[in-house]
Amino acid sequence: MYNLLVSGNDTAWDLPAYEFPRSRFLEYTVESMRDAHGDLSTKVVADLKSYPALFLYEQYEKTALVGYIRDIKERGNSIYIEYEFDQDIDPVPGERIKELASQLQIDEFRGEQYRTHWALKRVDLLGLLSTNGLVSPALANEGAPVGRLEEMKFKVAFSFPGELREYVEQVSNAIKATLPPGSVFYDNDFVAQLARPNLDTLLQTVYLKNSDLIVVFLSKDYETKMWCGIEWRAVRSFINSRSDETVMFFRADDASIPGVFAHDGYVDMARFPAEQSSQFVLERIRLLRKES
Fold first, then answer.
1. Domain end call among 103, 118, 140
2. How many domains does the chain have?
3. In this structure, is residue 147 part of a structural domain?
4. 204: domain range?
5. Where does 28-121 have alpha helices with state H?
6. Is residue 181 located within the same domain as residue 230?
7. Domain TIR: where (predicted)?
8. How far apart are CA 114 and CA 121, in angstroms?
9. Does the reported pTM lie above 0.85?
């Protein structure tokens, strides 16, 4: 999924903000996506901000830019957006975008390239640009959810030490096969986005604000890992606020973990294989959905 932002103003993308007429929002967008994104609710705004954006000039004039929308505000009959461009992606010559128009779902037959508008397209923008040598494969992270990590909303996020990765990956893969794309936070799906300074702040946002359920895989190694410790702060925040239903424990051994007590319930990893454990996680996700 990506945002296609087209302007006939030849200096439009020189500024960090732009205003579209409300009537131009979701033009050249398939009906099901218009229905799902048209109301600009809090959830819709978060979704739109999580999708990458292609900033294009009419008739492919000048270079195109790739980035993300940072803010969306309705102003009467218009929609005001603020955005930033991805500094790791070079501007793309308009001619190259024209060559890829059909793959980008730009409807040249209906003259989409001649009209200022904001469309949504069901295309993996970064993957397509990567395939054509316009974006680093590391940024595309083929097969991973597409979106800006700070803005994505997850049904479940996993916290675990590396020693348990094989088991956790099996659980994660089974759950991803059931839930919609982008519903699961598993670190290896976001390698490029996690390679940054101040990662502790980002992880706190992912676990504390952006995830419905945190699944914690405890073992003797968990307490000693720096990143597990950062994630554990978010888990403790949930527990301290009495949001017990948003945390789920798995145990690989009986190691003592500060903040985990003998009466706390858990799933025994030695007793249940990963496939069955994935069903337990899905059950908790379904229960959370009913409670909300």
1. 140
2. 2
3. no
4. 154-291
5. 31-37, 42-50, 94-99
6. yes
7. 156-271
8. 17
9. no
**pLDDT tens digits, one per residue of 142-180:** 555 556 788 788 999 998 988 999 999 999 999 998 887
CA–CA distance, 151 with 180 (Å, rounded to integer): 16
Amino acid at 210: N
Tokens 């337990």 locate to 280
Are 32 and 132 in the same domain?
yes
Are the C-beta atoms of residues 86 and 67 closer than 8 Å to each other? yes
The domain that holds 25 is classified in CATH as 3.10.590
Alpha helices, DSSP H only, in 31-85? 31-37, 42-50
Distance in Å from the first CA to the final CA of the chain: 27
User: Using one digit for the tens of pLDDT, what is the confidence trace for 46-85?
Assistant: 889 888 899 999 999 999 999 999 899 999 999 999 999 9
Residue given tokens 């059950």 in the structure block: 283
**71 touches 53 (CB < 8 A):** no
Residue 145 lies in a domain: no
Q: Residue 149 domain-assigned? A: no
Maximum pairwise Cα distance, the chain: 66
DSSP-derived 3-state class of residue 158: strand
